[in-house]
Design brief:
43% helix; 7 helices; 190 residues; globular; three-stranded antiparallel sheet; mainly alpha; 2 domains
Length: 190
């Protein structure tokens, strides 16, 4: 059984620490990512990388609601492999019989799911820090729907999901980078 198959089996079983450890072992025996951007090449601590992977399996953006639950799980596995430093054909290993979501390619779907996972992770961290409000801002390349969300303040609990479920990217096929959030810190509230 190949390393990617073994890692995928651990991920399917929910054993993210074992998947991470095996990926690290593989990284030591053979560079996984020649661009040196794997979590092991840039020294992300194991506990942080594992926590980040847990958010990948929580991510299920409404923007990708056209995917079946089975396809979302396959996409989550593909994103997890990418975050573990695998690349190329290895990322498509879990995507056997993957229906996809035309007009978007698999790599774009991975990006959208990854953005949602990062949004979930960042939102949880902001809540832990006691941040109650966020300010939206444009990432620079937005569809008309996402541009309407820019430059607004939201209670953190009410902030629209990222990527926005109303994004027009799926209809137009044009890449939209959407909006992002930054914390609103008010030093006058005491």
């Amino acid at each position: 059984m190949s390393f990617v198959e073994q890692v995928t089996n651990f991920l399917l079983a929910g054993d993210i620490p074992k998947a991470h450890a095996l990926s690290e072992e593989y990284q030591k025996s053979k560079p996984v990512d020649p661009r040196r951007t794997s979590p092991f090449a840039i020294n992300i601590p194991a506990d942080q990388a594992i926590k980040s992977l847990q958010f990948v399996f929580k991510a299920n953006p409404k923007k990708l609601s056209g995917l079946s639950n089975e396809d979302v799980k396959k996409l989550q596995l593909s994103v997890a492999l990418q975050r573990l430093g695998f690349y190329g054909a290895d990322l498509d290993y879990p995507l056997n019989d993957f229906a996809g979501l035309p007009p978007l390619k698999n790599q774009r779907l991975r990006i959208l799911l990854s953005v949602n996972a990062k949004h979930l992770e960042d939102t949880q961290a902001l809540k832990r820090m006691g941040i109650a409000k966020v300010q939206s801002f444009s990432s620079g390349v937005c569809c008309e729907s996402c541009a309407k969300l820019a430059d607004r303040q939201f209670n953190i609990e009410d902030a629209p999901e990222i990527p926005s479920p109303d994004c027009l990217e799926l209809k137009s096929g044009t890449v939209c980078h959407g909006v992002l959030y930054k914390p609103v810190i008010n030093f006058d509230d005491e």
